[in-house]
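Archive entry. Fields below.
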Amino acid sequence: MKVPQTIIHQAEKLRDEINEHNYRYYILDDPRISDAEYDQLFQKLKKLEEEYPTLITPDSPTQRVGAKPLKEFAEVTHDVPMLSLENAFSVEDVEAFDQRIHDRLKTDATIEYVCEPKLDGLAVSLRYENGVLKTAATRGDGFTGEDITENIRTIRMVPLHLRGEHFPKTIEVRGEVYMPKEGFNKLNARAEEKGEKVFVNPRNAAAGSVRQLDPRITATRPLEIFFYGIGAVDGKLPEKHSEILDLLKTWGLRVNPETKVVKGYEKCLAFHDHLQKKRSNLDYEIDGVVYKVNDIALQKELGFVSRAPRWAIAHKFPAEEVMTTVEEVEFQVGRTGALTPVARLKPVFVSGVTISNATLHNMDEVHRKDIHIGDTVVVRRAGDVIPEVVAALKQYRPKDAKKIRLPSKCPVCHSAIEHIEGEAVARCTGELFCSAQRKEAIKHFASRRAMDIEGLGDKLVDQLVNQDLIKSVADLYSLKLDELANLERMAEKSAQNILDALEKSKHTTFARFLYSLGIREVGEATAKQLAQHFGDLPGLFSATEEELQSISDIGPVVSKHIVAFFAEKHNRDVIQKLQQAGIRWEKVKKAANLPLAGKTFVLTGTLEKLTRDEAKEKLETLGAKVAGSVSAKTSYVVAGADPGSKLAKAKSLGVSVIDEREFLDMLASF
Ligand code: IVH
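PREDICTED_STRUCTURE:
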């Protein structure tokens, strides 16, 4: 059916009006019409679109919800990694941060900072292409996240297309999705009425809502967003962070109104005080203030250490502390056998939740803080971290208070406890004989960042081990439907889901597999390094400590653990069984096979099309090294605009110099 021209215009006009009212309402906080009038406009548009379905565009304000539930989230690789922030807990920490900046920049000038609330939600990255929202992703591990586009679209204050015309062709904007306190309370009240599970805090509620496979559920959750930065962008942006934030606002992207530009760290501290006083009156949770160097050129000069920028810091608010008593102390056995003393407390309410356990970390801590059973103690809870006992109040110690003693036998498997002189941690020597260690190893194996076996939660693993249905992670893959269906809180359908999840988990990556083995000290980053270096298992099986130590970031301790792990016959047997069960991965492209392996690049001057970090990332993924200074070993110097002394040095040493155009062509040629 041909849609009359007048109707097309009418729909366009309605969309523009609705978008403009959204902007006035959410960004300017200055609505011009009532909610009822807004609804009328919205209904009008909806009716038109129902009558003439061909009118519907994906970025029409009526098209926020609608997609069907997903089976799983797709992966999204972040072109510019999503980093984390260093924390400051005291005035001294902030002073030191400011001092480090002065030292690195070799300047006495007062630094201008942008102070922003540290929002307690979850970080997301939204990609707009030609002004249209294309993808939205979670932070994930900082390098890859999950595609949550359909869910983010349901958040009314997220523009489906940017306002105006002067935005870059592609831009990634980064911000925090959160659930306002009021919405959280209402949501929980409703859940309680219906006898459903309530959320622990707004942050978990926001995270749970964003990670819903059914966007129609997300649409019912009161989610909001503030933007605080950008990722990849093609095109020029202003030279100050505060100006970028102002620009985001003109495009319809919501920026936190508390944000303030100040000169000097003392003013940052004053802002911290001010916001801390205001904290309880804000409608959303914050856990500190982020200070960012305002000048982007200085940010670039300062760069990054590991995964956090040198130009920003999160100054946290002090954690909330309360008093209670220690009723008992128990020892928990972890994945590597480490015994952790845990205080069972008289329940107390702190930072919005009731707590009845707190960690005492290890025996050294117990002695240092001189904690006894029966003591009145100060307990602290900060954010999502496990509550901890800060101090014992000895003046209240009852006469019958008991000393805390390290058990001589494992409380679970009764094996001997080993406490190496000079080490804080005591361990159960039972290894895989100890059901506690086995359970933890299996839980780790199944966890999201390891083999990602959906549905195989802690309670299920406990039952499987308690009933002797599995002895090692390899046994997971021979579980039968009826074995699973007969467990508590399981039925045929949920059992089948687990079997499907197990099947799905078989196709993995080498890095994930290595991480899931739970080798001591081998976290995700090390697992990735190992995968990259060895490409596959055989090389790793026979690697010596020396070879392992030649890999960057792998030191003597980790390499010892790795060699010991693969020397153990039962570990090799488990690996073999897992492979026989069908676990597989694509062979990793070894660094040596990458096109720029062995080449060293030095970047100088300002690049137009990409930031220095992006250039570095791109080079490194192609196998090249990026160095800070030019030497005879340098393969190429990439010279942007206004290159420094490095260019002269390269010329004097006869090192090849390429400009940005040639550099981009080179990158594009692989
Ligand atoms: S900037 C390179 N600004 O804090 C800078 N982060 O620890 C990266 N966060 O994952 C982040 N409020 O989820 C920035 N105003 C703010 C923030 C903020 C909250 C969170 C964010 C990030 C984490 C970093």
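CURATOR_NOTE: The radius of gyration is 28 Å.
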